[in-house]
Amino acid sequence: MLQRILRPTLLAAAGRRVLSPLWPAVAAPFSTSTAVPDLAPAPATTTSTATTTATPPPPSASPPSSKAETLRLLPLLRAQPQHYITIHIHSFPFLVTLGDTITLPFRLKNIIPGQTLRLTHASILGSRDYTLKGSPWIDEKLFSCRAAVVEETREPMRVKKKTKRRQRKIKTVKSKHPYTVLRIKELEVLGGEEEA
User: Based on C-alpha coordinates, what's the Rg of the chain?
Assistant: First the structure.
Protein backbone atom coordinates (compact mmCIF):
# COMPACT_ATOMS: atom_id res chain seq x y z
CA MET A 1 0.00 0.00 0.00
CA LEU A 2 2.87 2.32 0.75
CA GLN A 3 4.27 1.74 -2.74
CA ARG A 4 1.09 3.07 -4.36
CA ILE A 5 1.27 6.35 -2.43
CA LEU A 6 4.94 7.31 -2.97
CA ARG A 7 6.22 8.60 -6.28
CA PRO A 8 8.39 6.26 -8.38
CA THR A 9 11.27 8.75 -8.28
CA LEU A 10 11.31 8.70 -4.48
CA LEU A 11 11.27 4.91 -4.47
CA ALA A 12 14.05 4.77 -7.06
CA ALA A 13 16.13 7.06 -4.88
CA ALA A 14 15.65 4.62 -2.02
CA GLY A 15 16.94 1.77 -4.19
CA ARG A 16 13.57 0.13 -4.94
CA ARG A 17 12.10 -0.30 -8.39
CA VAL A 18 8.32 -0.15 -8.45
CA LEU A 19 5.73 0.43 -11.15
CA SER A 20 3.09 2.67 -9.63
CA PRO A 21 -0.26 3.10 -11.40
CA LEU A 22 -0.75 6.57 -9.91
CA TRP A 23 2.17 8.29 -11.67
CA PRO A 24 2.94 8.11 -15.40
CA ALA A 25 6.27 6.72 -16.55
CA VAL A 26 7.01 9.66 -18.85
CA ALA A 27 8.38 12.98 -17.73
CA ALA A 28 6.18 16.06 -17.66
CA PRO A 29 6.35 18.27 -20.81
CA PHE A 30 7.68 21.25 -18.84
CA SER A 31 10.48 19.22 -17.26
CA THR A 32 14.01 19.89 -18.52
CA SER A 33 15.43 16.54 -17.50
CA THR A 34 14.97 13.60 -19.84
CA ALA A 35 15.95 10.92 -17.37
CA VAL A 36 13.09 8.54 -16.65
CA PRO A 37 13.58 6.09 -13.79
CA ASP A 38 14.08 2.51 -14.93
CA LEU A 39 10.89 0.58 -14.17
CA ALA A 40 12.17 -2.87 -15.12
CA PRO A 41 11.85 -5.60 -12.51
CA ALA A 42 14.69 -5.91 -10.07
CA PRO A 43 17.22 -8.71 -10.69
CA ALA A 44 16.67 -11.90 -8.73
CA THR A 45 18.46 -12.15 -5.41
CA THR A 46 19.53 -15.16 -3.39
CA THR A 47 16.50 -14.84 -1.13
CA SER A 48 14.08 -15.15 -4.03
CA THR A 49 15.79 -18.29 -5.34
CA ALA A 50 15.41 -19.91 -1.94
CA THR A 51 11.69 -19.36 -1.99
CA THR A 52 11.26 -20.62 -5.55
CA THR A 53 13.10 -23.89 -4.93
CA ALA A 54 10.55 -25.00 -2.34
CA THR A 55 7.63 -26.61 -4.16
CA PRO A 56 4.22 -26.87 -2.52
CA PRO A 57 2.67 -30.30 -2.14
CA PRO A 58 0.46 -31.34 -5.04
CA PRO A 59 -3.20 -30.39 -4.53
CA SER A 60 -4.35 -33.96 -5.09
CA ALA A 61 -2.50 -35.14 -1.97
CA SER A 62 -4.47 -33.14 0.63
CA PRO A 63 -8.15 -33.94 -0.18
CA PRO A 64 -7.90 -37.75 0.31
CA SER A 65 -6.31 -37.27 3.72
CA SER A 66 -9.04 -34.81 4.78
CA LYS A 67 -11.72 -37.19 3.46
CA ALA A 68 -10.15 -40.07 5.34
CA GLU A 69 -9.94 -37.88 8.44
CA THR A 70 -13.64 -37.01 8.07
CA LEU A 71 -14.63 -40.66 7.76
CA ARG A 72 -12.46 -41.52 10.76
CA LEU A 73 -14.11 -38.88 12.99
CA LEU A 74 -17.65 -39.45 11.72
CA PRO A 75 -18.49 -42.18 14.31
CA LEU A 76 -17.59 -39.72 17.09
CA LEU A 77 -20.08 -37.21 15.68
CA ARG A 78 -22.71 -39.93 15.26
CA ALA A 79 -22.31 -41.00 18.92
CA GLN A 80 -23.33 -37.55 20.21
CA PRO A 81 -26.87 -37.31 21.65
CA GLN A 82 -28.23 -34.32 19.70
CA HIS A 83 -27.30 -32.85 16.33
CA TYR A 84 -27.89 -29.57 14.53
CA ILE A 85 -27.64 -28.79 10.84
CA THR A 86 -27.58 -25.68 8.67
CA ILE A 87 -29.73 -26.44 5.65
CA HIS A 88 -30.12 -24.22 2.61
CA ILE A 89 -33.45 -23.88 0.81
CA HIS A 90 -33.29 -21.56 -2.22
CA SER A 91 -30.07 -20.01 -0.83
CA PHE A 92 -31.69 -19.22 2.55
CA PRO A 93 -29.76 -20.82 5.46
CA PHE A 94 -31.71 -22.30 8.38
CA LEU A 95 -30.05 -23.63 11.54
CA VAL A 96 -32.32 -26.43 12.77
CA THR A 97 -32.43 -29.48 14.98
CA LEU A 98 -34.89 -32.37 15.27
CA GLY A 99 -38.47 -31.19 15.81
CA ASP A 100 -37.93 -27.56 14.76
CA THR A 101 -40.53 -25.69 12.72
CA ILE A 102 -39.33 -23.55 9.82
CA THR A 103 -41.44 -20.81 8.27
CA LEU A 104 -40.04 -20.22 4.80
CA PRO A 105 -40.37 -16.62 3.56
CA PHE A 106 -41.78 -17.91 0.26
CA ARG A 107 -44.10 -20.58 -1.08
CA LEU A 108 -42.63 -23.85 -2.31
CA LYS A 109 -44.24 -24.90 -5.57
CA ASN A 110 -45.83 -28.28 -6.34
CA ILE A 111 -46.10 -29.51 -2.75
CA ILE A 112 -49.06 -30.48 -0.60
CA PRO A 113 -49.38 -30.50 3.20
CA GLY A 114 -48.27 -33.80 4.69
CA GLN A 115 -45.65 -34.41 2.01
CA THR A 116 -42.12 -35.36 3.15
CA LEU A 117 -39.13 -33.55 1.65
CA ARG A 118 -35.53 -34.75 1.73
CA LEU A 119 -33.17 -31.83 2.32
CA THR A 120 -29.79 -32.40 0.67
CA HIS A 121 -28.04 -29.01 0.74
CA ALA A 122 -26.35 -28.54 4.10
CA SER A 123 -23.25 -26.54 4.93
CA ILE A 124 -22.74 -27.40 8.63
CA LEU A 125 -23.57 -30.54 10.60
CA GLY A 126 -22.61 -30.73 14.23
CA SER A 127 -23.22 -31.48 17.86
CA ARG A 128 -22.02 -30.01 21.14
CA ASP A 129 -18.47 -31.36 20.68
CA TYR A 130 -17.96 -31.87 16.93
CA THR A 131 -18.72 -29.88 13.78
CA LEU A 132 -18.52 -30.97 10.16
CA LYS A 133 -18.25 -28.11 7.66
CA GLY A 134 -18.78 -28.49 3.94
CA SER A 135 -17.04 -26.61 1.19
CA PRO A 136 -19.59 -25.44 0.16
CA TRP A 137 -21.86 -28.45 0.85
CA ILE A 138 -21.59 -31.59 2.94
CA ASP A 139 -21.86 -34.81 0.97
CA GLU A 140 -25.50 -35.92 1.12
CA LYS A 141 -24.42 -39.52 1.80
CA LEU A 142 -23.14 -38.49 5.23
CA PHE A 143 -26.48 -37.31 6.66
CA SER A 144 -30.22 -37.73 6.34
CA CYS A 145 -32.51 -34.76 6.93
CA ARG A 146 -36.24 -34.96 6.18
CA ALA A 147 -38.92 -32.36 6.70
CA ALA A 148 -42.70 -32.65 6.60
CA VAL A 149 -44.81 -29.91 5.03
CA VAL A 150 -47.09 -28.68 7.81
CA GLU A 151 -49.08 -26.04 5.96
CA GLU A 152 -49.11 -23.33 3.33
CA THR A 153 -50.21 -20.13 5.00
CA ARG A 154 -50.19 -16.40 4.38
CA GLU A 155 -48.98 -13.54 6.48
CA PRO A 156 -51.51 -11.08 7.96
CA MET A 157 -52.64 -8.38 5.59
CA ARG A 158 -50.27 -5.42 5.57
CA VAL A 159 -51.44 -2.02 4.40
CA LYS A 160 -48.92 0.68 3.60
CA LYS A 161 -49.81 4.19 2.57
CA LYS A 162 -47.41 5.75 0.10
CA THR A 163 -47.25 9.49 -0.40
CA LYS A 164 -45.06 11.96 -2.26
CA ARG A 165 -44.06 15.41 -1.15
CA ARG A 166 -46.33 18.25 -2.17
CA GLN A 167 -48.88 15.79 -3.56
CA ARG A 168 -52.31 15.16 -2.12
CA LYS A 169 -52.55 11.63 -3.49
CA ILE A 170 -52.22 8.71 -1.09
CA LYS A 171 -51.62 5.31 -2.60
CA THR A 172 -52.61 2.29 -0.52
CA VAL A 173 -50.54 -0.86 -1.10
CA LYS A 174 -51.78 -4.15 0.32
CA SER A 175 -49.61 -7.24 0.67
CA LYS A 176 -50.29 -10.73 1.96
CA HIS A 177 -47.37 -12.97 1.05
CA PRO A 178 -47.64 -16.78 1.05
CA TYR A 179 -45.44 -18.85 3.36
CA THR A 180 -44.61 -22.55 3.64
CA VAL A 181 -44.19 -24.13 7.07
CA LEU A 182 -41.93 -27.20 7.47
CA ARG A 183 -41.19 -29.39 10.48
CA ILE A 184 -37.92 -31.34 10.76
CA LYS A 185 -38.91 -34.92 11.45
CA GLU A 186 -35.62 -36.74 10.84
CA LEU A 187 -32.01 -35.70 11.39
CA GLU A 188 -29.48 -38.48 11.38
CA VAL A 189 -25.74 -38.79 10.81
CA LEU A 190 -25.07 -41.71 8.51
CA GLY A 191 -21.99 -43.87 8.59
CA GLY A 192 -20.63 -43.08 5.16
CA GLU A 193 -19.83 -46.78 4.61
CA GLU A 194 -21.20 -46.52 1.07
CA GLU A 195 -18.17 -44.46 0.05
CA ALA A 196 -15.51 -46.62 1.71
Answer: 30
